[in-house]
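Worked Example 4.2. Consider the chain below.
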Amino acid sequence: MTATQMTTEIDALKMRLKATWMTGDYDRFSRYMEKDAESFYKRLGIGPGTRLLDVACGAGQLALIAARAGADVTGCDIATNWLEQARNRADAEGLDIVFEEGDAEALPYPNEEFDAVVSLIGAMFAPRPHRVAAELSRVCKRGGVIAMANWTPDGFIGRMFRAISRYIAPNGMPAPTLWGDEATVRDRLSEGIADLNMERSNYRFHYPFAPEDVVDFFRENYGPMSKAFASLDSAGQQELRNDLVRLWSEHNYDTSGGTKVDAEYLQVIATRA
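Applying the procedure from the previous section yields the following structure tokens:
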């Protein structure tokens, strides 16, 4: 395959992924995830005045938390509609945050621009992970913090992705949940890193409605889920829905009629050499 053909294929893949992530309403979706996003941020120990980049920031979930805590925040994402949602939320709160389009594999910033480079369940979905690792390191200052939260392969969300990946996963693209495997992360963050710490934690999904409605909520608001269902005929959609309702029901421990599920993720905190 020639370099031109490879570039054309990557461009096509990028367009497909961008269309997937621009589907649905991530602002509405992410609001049910704010509590544990705050817990993740607090564990990073980032102080006021820190210049922070939120990579694959979505609708601004983590960026807003960081700005409220006094950080000087920039957020980037490939989904331009989500960025508009993020700007609206920041404006409503009077927060001065820069949100701009940016690809985790080719961040539009100079070398060593930020004190902290963070990604909460975001950069893990880019198709070329070693490029992501290199970019996170490149834009972080020496001695600065690189932090990620990534779903693990065998955790609840990892299982959910296995159920839908055959409908949406591009050929040859590494599984995003490999970013939740410690050995893989050590390999990817082996260059330019002075210290690397990883810890498994649980991210709680808590919805005031039953598992069947949770699946429909994901289908309506979460891009990958919407695309998976859209790729199927009515019989296939019903089969997938049944599989997902069963998964959520089996892991639900809310006895009051709502849904509570703990999803394992890998917290990665590295120091830039």
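The mean pLDDT is 95. Strands lie at 51-55, 72-77, 98-101, 114-120, 140-151, 193-207, 259-272. Compare this with Example 4.1 before moving on.
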